[in-house]
């Protein structure tokens, strides 16, 4: 989870030096290591297929050849960037060659599933907090399910929904939903219970009903617990939606793009789909963090 | 145990639960629940009555204030009833096996394909998950210790490492397959990648967990860097390390299983789940899922008990008595 450490208000240049510079250096080092690895991994193939047939070659030729192999073991960063750029610019938005099309497909099922999972988690956590029976009988199972690889039942969900006649967004959204639902429920139960005894007792002396206590005290108190769970949930939902695209032989979506890339050995395509899904994950969680800042403002985070 | 009448288990509750279980057994074997007989109002009345009895029993058990044993018993009873109604309704209503096989069918598949599932378990859990988990967590820990004295690297690496939790890392599986082949090494590689970053982040956070006061005390004892690390900072980091190990155990299982969806040799839990699902052999699919689920919970429980032994002195453990 992104741990944001708030520094005391310092000058911009100081902040730049202490926070941004190290990250930039590490990123640059990663990029250089990537290039080095590209040369190292692609060299045998490049020598065999490109350079040997043409006769004598120099190191310079080798460097150039490793960066331009059509199906490289590891594509160079600029190859991936070019492929990404051309897929975004050269094709219309509704073409399956445009990666944004796949982003839209996967993002849609992620968001639909995320919304359903969040609502389900909220409702269930409110029920659990107000019912001792549910708290004792159901909550242990929900907590225990976090140590179980629930994503493994994705193929089962696909088969069940498939035989019931659902296809397209629905099965993927259901899988994203149940992945979002667990963290939201667990965090909300914790959050709804976070008010101090003295605060609940005060509402009691005001003769507040259970609903008023929920609305005025418990829900606001639970918000700082909710948002980290939402960030975890939406990232898990994205993984769920992508995995759901694998067994169905789906034609669209980032997961399908990864799979077809691996079928046809199109490494550059795999990498650009991977980069795109990373960007989608960052955007989704970033959006959640933005909403969190909007809602909570300067309230203390947990 | 029964002496505390108010807060302990009373006879009425016990009788109610026993009555419910007896009635459940009777209904399961009654001709009413036979899939061939048409479902009469009598069957539905009996089922609803039984559900009422079950809920009443769970409610009474849940209302007991007492040792944690009662809470676990409530959860166990609830699980048992869910399993029972799953069995009763799937058999009585003749639900197609593709939709939802009865628990007994899953159990039958489990014992029938024991050999296959054992091979799958070895392939996925013993080879890919265990090795990848150890290697990934070990590397994360090692890098965390190594850059402990380099604040510049820490400040650069920590934000990037934290960001990876929002990225679907499991998507590297097709690349891993190309690099390391179809067999388990490619799955282990995915697991290493997925478990590395949580461990790195937790190690760095854990090493900061000791108090300034405590560190100054070590300094006043003239303890060097290594001694302070070994005697103070690593023990203080224990809860962080264990929480990363627990998170990683689940992540590793997910990573290996999903990586097998992308392509694998003819064994492995993920391979079994995905191929048998396309063949509509749902009994075996559910059995493989059950093996994965039990593995996940057992590993988690083992780590929790290990943590209790290793960090018994820590407030977060002592408080959980």
Element layout with pairings:
The complex is a heterodimer of chains A (about 300) and B (about 325).
Chain A: H1 12-54, H2 59-66, H3 77-89, H4 99-130, H5 132-137, H6 139-144, H7 154-163, H8 169-192, H9 197-205, H10 210-244, H11 254-263, H12 267-296
Helix pairs in contact in A: 1-2, 3-12, 4-8, 4-10, 4-12, 7-8, 8-10, 10-12, 11-12
Chain B: H1 11-29, H2 41-62, H3 68-92, H4 103-112, H5 114-146, H6 151-163, H7 173-180, H8 184-207, H9 212-220, H10 225-261, H11 269-278, H12 282-310, H13 315-318
Helix pairs in contact in B: 1-2, 2-3, 4-12, 5-8, 5-10, 5-11, 6-8, 7-8, 8-10, 10-11, 10-12, 11-12
Domain tally of chain B: 2
The level 1 CATH classification of the largest domain in chain A is: Mainly Alpha
Low-confidence stretches of chain A: 1-9
Rg of chain B, rounded, reads: 26 Å
CATH topology of the largest domain in chain A: MetI-like fold
Largest sheet of chain B: none
| CATH topology-level fold name of the largest domain in chain B | MetI-like fold
Number of helices of chain A: 12
Query: What is the rounded distance between the termini of chain A?
Result: 12 Å
CATH top level label of the largest domain in chain B: Mainly Alpha
The major sheet of chain A is characterized as: none
For the record, the CATH architecture of the largest domain in chain B stands as Orthogonal Bundle
Number of strands of chain A: 0
The CATH superfamily of the largest domain in chain A is identified as MetI-like
Say which CATH homologous superfamily of the largest domain in chain B is assigned.
MetI-like
The total number of structural domains of chain A is 2
| Assembly annotation | heterodimer
Specify which chain pair forms the largest interface: A-B, 64 and 71 residues
What would the principal axes of the Cα set say about the shape of chain A? elongated
User: What structural class do helix, strand and pairing data of chain B support?
Assistant: mainly alpha
CATH architectural name of the largest domain in chain A: Orthogonal Bundle
